[in-house]
Amino acid sequence: MLSRLSRPKAVAVCALPVVALFATAVFVPLPFSLAQPGLTANVLGENKGTPVITVSGASTRRTTGQLRMTTIEATGPDADVSLGDVIDGWFRTDRAVMPRDAVYPSGDTVKEIERHNAEQMQQSQDAASRAALRYLHISEKDVKVTLKLADVGGPSAGLLFSLGIIDKLEGDGGGGDLTGGRTVAGTGTIDAVGNVGAVGGVALKTQAARRDGATVFLVPKDECADAHADLPKGLRLVPVTTLDGAVDALMALEKGKGPVPSC
Q1: H/E element holding 82?
Q2: Which residues of 167-194 are buried (b: 16+ CB within 10 A; e: fewer)?
Q3: How high does pLDDT run on average in the chain?
Q4: Are the CB atoms for 162 and 156 separated by under 8 Å?
Q5: Which CATH architecture has domain 37-76+110-255?
Q6: Which residues contact 194 (CB under 8 A, 6 or more apart)?
Q7: Strand pairing report for 189-190 and 196-197
Q8: N or C: which end of the chain has fewer CB atoms below 10 A?
């Protein structure tokens, strides 16, 4: 036999499942990763006591200024991210909520992901060396470039590696530096013929760049809109699509002559 509940009791009984569902949603792990600005590294200098760029078979030049590659830091593939974490990340400019598959598309285990990222970094370094030597019209048979950057994976440092090699070997071609003594940061993949490709987490990378003293940020042109989101004050965006274009833009900035692309 059913008894009739008073209105307050009925509302309370109906609300119980909703409260239970909300409580479950708050604590159940969700398929997202939380990202934040990561480390930056000057490819013209050392990383953990080891030169990032080493050249044999050709003399290198002393450089001033910095070329800083940028990264993001994300929660691990096996980390639990709750609804509360996601909501908090959405309302913070120094955090980003990203689909886990977009951050870790390469495997199910930490070891698989680390192996994939290491392979991507090696491929990026090889392409960066080829692109830089091609730009300089130097044969790979005559010059060997070694790139080392500990604890960083993925392909997004390719552009900065290429620029670093060019600056080490030739600079601006007239005794000056590509950087013009500035701290220049950036991101972007590169292929062996110098095409620059898009990457992820650009809005967070601009924050990392400015935090570490950069005043210029090289960004793949297709990601200008993303780079403008929460852009730190004092950081100038320079869009690039090729290695040649990136070098031209830096030389224009250094010499104060010619147009400098802007987003």
Answers
A1: none
A2: bbbbbbeeebbbbbebbbbbbbbbbeeb
A3: 85
A4: no
A5: 2-Layer Sandwich (3.30)
A6: 131, 134, 135, 162, 242, 243, 244
A7: antiparallel
A8: N
For residue 80, what are its two tokens? Answer: 């639990």
- Most confident range (mean pLDDT) of 5-14, 15-24, 211-220 is 211-220
Specify which residues 33 forms β-bridges with.
98
**pTM higher than 0.85 for the full model?**
no
Q: Give the pair of three-digit tokens for residue 74.
A: 């994300």
Mean pLDDT of 123-131: 96
User: Which range has the worst mean pLDDT, 14-23, 94-103, 160-169?
Assistant: 14-23
Name, in order, each residue with C-beta under 8 angstroms of 46's C-beta and a sequence gap of 6 or more. 52
Which residue do the tokens 């080891």 mark?
50
CB 218 within 8 A of CB 245: no
pLDDT at 24: 42
Q: For the chain, give every domain's residue range.
A: 37-76+110-255
**Residue for token pair 């993303």:** 226
Going along the chain, which residue ranges are E strands? 32-42, 46-47, 50-51, 53-56, 66-74, 96-99, 144-147, 183-186, 189-190, 196-197, 216-220, 236-240
Burial annotation 21-41 (CB, 10 A radius, 16+ → b, else e)? eeeeeeeeeeebbbbbbbebb
What pLDDT is attached to residue 3? Answer: 42
